[in-house]
Structure formats: C-alpha cells, structure tokens
C-alpha cells in the first residue's frame, strides 16, 4: 500500500510541475511542523491562510488535494477523507508542501524546502509558523523523525 501511495504522490507532483528542484526525490525538508485544524472549517481556514501568505510573499499556491484523491482512488488506496495536499513555491525553489497522508483526518504536516536562498526560506518558515500558531497548536517534528498522528490527539484547541 505504501508503494501505491508514494507512486500517487510522485504522479501528483509531476502532474503539477512541483517535483523538480526543491521537491527532488530524496531531499528531506529542512524543517517539519504539524498541527490539528480540527474540522472542515479549520481546513478551509488553513488553505485560505496559505493562499493569502503565498500571495503576500510573491509565491505560487497550489491545491492538489482533489487530484491526489483521484489518484489514490485509481490506485485503490483506502484513505481517510478529506485528502489534503497543498503547498506554495517561490521561483528560487523554496516553499513548502503540506498534507495529511498517514495522519488523522484533520491533522496537517508541513515540510519546508530551502531552494536556492536558504536564509530566506528559513525566514519564511518562521513567519508561516508564527501565523499558524496564532490559531492552532503547532508542533515541531524532530529532525530525525517523520510526522506521526499525534497533533489531533494531543488536544490543542483552535484559538
């Protein structure tokens, strides 16, 4: 099942044109965070927040959630709904990808990529994390670990 999931993610990335550069296969994010948006309204707010911030930062926002959901269905991968796969990208290759695959339904994990200007990418990650922390309980994923379904179980009511 994991191989089907990885194949679907790769197909999505190639289809959206985001697999090269910052999201090259094997390149680990320099920072990962996760949090619980709690419900459909929280998910809508999260996507709106990302879209707004991307616009303010001169970045491109993408929402590949529906396409990933279709790819997973074609691959016969049973997933909790809603499927979330969104991100933002700057021309220098920095940005982020966010999703809930392998997590609780309304739990989001974000991985940040450095691109060609690591200092700006790191600064952007701090700005986004602060913005998200105004509403949700943002947890840092340890560098030697991956995101695990914990943020929604740890409480952290939305503000």
Summarize the SSE layout with pairings:
Blueprint: H1 2-16, E1 31-36, H2 40-56, E2 60-63, H3 65-74, E3 85-89, E4 95-99, E5 107-113, H4 118-133, E6 139-140
Antiparallel strand pairs: 1-5, 1-6, 2-3, 3-4, 4-5
Helix pairs in contact: 1-3
* Gyration radius, in Å: 15 Å
Unreliable stretches: 10-25
* Protein structure class: alpha+beta
* Number of continuous helical runs: 4
Count of DSSP strands: 6
Terminal Cα span: 36 Å
The overall pLDDT, averaged over residues, is 82
Describe the protein's architecture and organization.
The chain has 159 residues and is α+β, with helices and mostly antiparallel strands. The termini are far apart. Helices cover 36% and strands 18% of the residues.
Keywords:
6 strands, 159 residues, 6-stranded antiparallel beta sheet, 4 helices, single chain, alpha+beta, globular
Short description:
With 159 residues, this protein is an alpha+beta fold. It is built from four helices and six strands.
């Amino acid at each position: 099942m994991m191989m089907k999931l990885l194949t679907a993610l790769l197909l999505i990335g190639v289809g959206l044109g985001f697999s090269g550069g910052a999201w090259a296969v094997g390149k680990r994010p320099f920072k990962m965070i996760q949090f619980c948006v709690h419900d459909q309204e929280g998910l809508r707010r999260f996507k709106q927040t990302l879209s707004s911030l991307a616009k303010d930062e001169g970045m491109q926002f993408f929402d590949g959630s529906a396409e990933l959901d279709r790819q997973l269905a074609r691959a016969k991968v049973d997933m909790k709904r809603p499927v979330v796969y969104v991100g933002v990208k700057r021309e220098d290759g920095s940005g982020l990808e966010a999703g809930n695959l392998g997590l609780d339904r309304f739990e989001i994990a974000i991985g940040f990529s450095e691109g060609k200007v690591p200092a700006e990418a790191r600064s952007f990650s701090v700005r986004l994390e602060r913005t998200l922390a105004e509403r949700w309980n943002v947890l840092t994923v340890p560098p030697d670990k991956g995101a695990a379904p914990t943020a929604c179980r740890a409480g952290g009511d939305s503000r």
